[in-house]
Amino acid sequence: MSTTSPARGRALPTPAPLPWSGLLALSTAAFTAVLTELLPAGLLPRMAPALGVSEARIGFLVTGYAAASFAAAVPLTALLRGLPRRKVLVGALFGFAVSNAVVALSSSYPLTFAARLVAGCVGGTLWAMLAGYAARMVPAARRGRAIAIVLAGITLALSLGVPAGTALAGAVGWRTAFGLLSGLSVLLVGWVRWRVPGFPGEARHARVPLVRVAALPGVPAVLSVTLFLLVGHQVMYTYVAPFAAHAGFGRTGVVLLVFGAATVVGVWITGMLVDRHPRPTLLGALGLCATVMLVLGLAAGVPGVLLISVALWGVAFGGAPTLIQTALVDASGPERADAATSLQTTVYNAGIAVGSLTGGVALEGLGAGALPWTALPLVVVALGVVGVGRRNAFPATRR
Q1: What is the CATH number of domain 16-206?
Q2: N or C: which end of the chain has fewer CB within 10 A?
């Protein structure tokens, strides 16, 4: 099947359809990873008595996962880069199945914490793979949309999965919820083996050391945008509850719901634009994010302004990870995407940690009203890096 170019009068091939089943399997893997990471945060009052610890120590189950992911992403990716990619992906999913099953059955806090560390390690490995895997499944011209589909699993987990998982745990018990999550991982293994193509690992002679991957043209710029955007975002997002109270709107759940729903819209818009206009779209997302921080700093006390600003913030941030990840895969090349993404996973988690710490210092020292003013310059720096990184990191059109 072909179409005709009006300008030249010659037939052009119709793009092959996207491998939807395989991409949705990868998206479900992203969904499972996020739900595994964050589900304990919604179950603090239920898990604490069963494990005989305080709610704060249940919160450390999330902290431990993130710390393990941060520490393991680079070394495990380097260790496994020569293995067939689908085997590594299946191994990571089995890791989730086992760790969630242990959490579901354990009555020992140390054992539960150890299982969470294992989950964090396999999670770091999984995140380093997903975008590169999606990029290798489609032609270069459709790479951005494929990555958007896969990363949409993150958005759905945050906006729907975690609230639904928390509600399910309330209805059937938290152990059953983790058991079902373990079962989902096992089913996902079958889906991946059925519909996701296998790719070879990197040949030993072709492997580029991680230090050289980090120095590839464009990669440092993409990693710096990741860091500054995540720090700025996390300054506000971590402390959205005290900021909403400062603004005179104490219903934090409504604020988070608006943000989560808006991120879905942001992912959809980005999927439509990322392959044709990657740099203008990213500039627009970061510019909108900076504008929102400015408005929140100036006029957050009006509830309508607060909710509209949060919705626009969600749209802007919802699409940004796909745009940045696509830029990273383009800069590194799909064959080195796993190594580059392992670096980005580390930077991403560092941004979350630094942003939460920075926001906490600002909140304690200057009050909630200082949070958007703390976030604004960080987002502006990210915007500036994209603005000057035209050739290697953020070209106007896909290469």
Answers
A1: 1.20.1250.20
A2: N
β-pairing verdict for 2-4 and 11-13: antiparallel
Helix 109-136, helix 303-332: angle, nearest 10: 60
Please determine, for residue 349, whether its predicted confidence score (pLDDT) is greater than 90: no
Residue 325 CA to residue 345 CA, distance in Å, equals: 10
Report the CATH fold assignment for 212-388.
Growth Hormone; Chain: A; (1.20.1250)
* Domain residue ranges in the chain: 16-206, 212-388
The pair of structure tokens assigned to 154 is 């993150």
SS3 content of the chain, % helix, strand, coil (to 5): 80, 0, 20
Which pLDDT tens digit goes with each residue over 279-305? 889 999 999 999 999 999 998 777 778
Tokens, residue 136? 């290798």
R_g over Cα of the chain: 21
Residue 5: is its pLDDT beyond 50?
no
Q: 3-class SS at 13? A: strand
Q: What are phi and psi for residue 13, nearest 5 degrees?
A: -65, 140
pTM: 0.75
What mean pLDDT is predicted for residues 223-238? 88
Q: Which helix (H) or strand (E) holds 3?
A: strand 2-4
Residue 299, C-beta contacts closer than 8 angstroms, at least 6 positions apart: 305
